[in-house]
Design brief:
mainly alpha, 2 domains, two-stranded antiparallel sheet, 13 helices, elongated
Length: 289
């Protein structure tokens, strides 16, 4: 009985739209057209094996984009609204915020406003479906990514001293000359300290960027910047010794990189008008589907 109840809740994500409640918070709106269509097309959904949801997303997406079936698009928009709410609540819990600060910026789809390519207005759900490629990412992953990249949502986070990007992504997109300028003009570090940090950053980028390039070749796209492996940290140690005659333990190298990332994170928050209150890499809970 409990399993049946869970399945009904899971299925209802395809015909119940999560939208803002004028009185505060959110409410769900059942879309009869989407419900009838989904139950007709996927009557055995609850009995499907793992991977069924990916198949459903692909099929709904094909019907929506290529066959122009409105009901299929409505099902996807309902599902996306649930993902958006989920990510906002996870971010709010992770950083001790009120989710109502985040939801209005991204939960902006309304069924009474159809997608129109000629209209300048684009809801986040519209952007998700416009850019989604089922061969490159799961719909849940792609939705989560666009939520966390949303300018309005990130502006709110920045105001609260939160910069939602991993340490490794920050290090990956900071050029050594940028680091020199920031550490000199903003942090007023000594020339020796700056030189050591630049050597560490350059060593990291030479090793880590190669791994990212190999990922692009193997998978055809780049995912998130994950933690460097133990093997990569060892390679960074070797690079430091070979090119800069610096002998560092793996633990010291990793801590040094994280300290650099923290300074860069705080600087980015400051120049964007936020409080100097640094937060580390995304909580793994936010990555769960």
């Amino acid at each position: 009985m409990l399993l049946d109840q869970i399945e009904r809740v899971m299925m209802s994500r395809y015909w119940k739209l999560v939208r803002l409640n004028p009185a505060g918070g959110v409410k769900t709106l059942e879309i009869p057209e989407a419900k009838e269509f989904f139950q007709k097309q996927f009557p055995e959904w609850g009995n499907c094996q793992t991977g069924a949801e990916t198949h459903i997303h692909r099929q709904l997406f094909a019907w929506s984009r290529f066959d122009r079936i409105r009901a299929a698009q409505l099902c996807l928009r309902c599902y996306i609204s649930h993902r958006i709410e989920r990510v906002c609540r996870q971010l709010a819990a992770q950083y001790d915020l009120d989710s109502n600060l985040l939801l209005p910026h991204v939960l902006d789809d309304t069924i009474d406003r159809p997608f129109d390519r000629q209209s300048p207005y684009r809801s986040l759900a519209h952007k998700v479906l416009e850019t989604f490629d089922p061969d490159r990412a799961a719909l849940s992953t792609w939705t989560d990514r666009l939520v966390k990249r949303h300018r309005g949502l990130n502006h709110v986070l920045i105001e609260h001293g939160i910069y939602v990007i991993s340490d490794w992504a920050i290090l990956n997109d900071t050029k050594p000359q940028q680091l020199r300028r920031i550490f000199s003009d903003f942090y007023h570090l000594t020339a020796r300290e700056i030189q050591e940090d630049c050597h560490l950053l350059e060593s990291y980028q030479n090793v880590y960027s190669l791994g990212r390039l190999q990922q692009r070749v193997q998978e055809g796209h780049l995912g998130q910047c994950t933690d460097p492996t133990d093997g990569q940290i060892e390679q960074i140690c070797q690079y430091l010794e070979q090119h800069y005659d610096k002998i560092r333990s793996p633990n010291r190298v990793k801590m040094g990189l994280q300290n650099i990332a923290k300074k860069l994170r705080d600087y980015r928050i400051y120049v964007r008008g936020g409080f100097l209150q640094s937060h580390p890499i995304d909580d793994p809970r936010v990555q769960k589907k």
